[in-house]
Amino acid sequence: MHTQINEFHVPKSAQGEDFWLSIGLPSRGASLHETLHQGIPFHVYTKLVAISGLESKKLAKYLVIPPATLQRRAKAGRFKVDEGDRLYRFAEVYKCAIDLFEGDKEQARKWLLNPVRGLGGKHPADMISTSAGAEAVLDLIGRLEHGVFA
């Protein structure tokens, strides 16, 4: 007699909320909108650096935030709206990449930092600085999750 042991997997929706809670941002809705308009707190950036495994300078490069500006935001404690929007976009893409690789943060990080054929050989992390680029990355992730490669 064989007894099958099923593994328990946290549903993606619950994993997603854990991710957003861990970096200190609401995932959606009015509270996210309000947070963006008030200015994302600087600690969200430091948490995202830690979770993603990226160097602070590298993440700032992908967010198009010069080093001097990053230092000013650290002192002020908040990002401006446009900077926070790019920070949120990075977090959203990184979260979706983690989901694509079934929770493997290292694989998600590697995927973001390397050329991807589905993006014309561009690195996903380099495309996050614009909403159109981030949308293209998220679209590709969605297609990969559903097995649509064309």
TrEMBL record:
Q: What is this protein called?
A: DUF2384 domain-containing protein
Name all Antitoxin Xre/MbcA/ParS-like toxin-binding domain ranges: 97-147
Residue intervals of the Antitoxin Xre-like helix-turn-helix domain: 32-91
Provide the coiled-coil residue spans. Answer: none
Highest taxon above the source species? Bacteria
The family database entries (InterPro entries) matched by this protein are listed as: Antitox_Xre (IPR011979), Xre-like_HTH (IPR046847), Xre/MbcA/ParS-like_toxin-bd (IPR024467)
Write down the species.
Answer: Vreelandella vilamensis
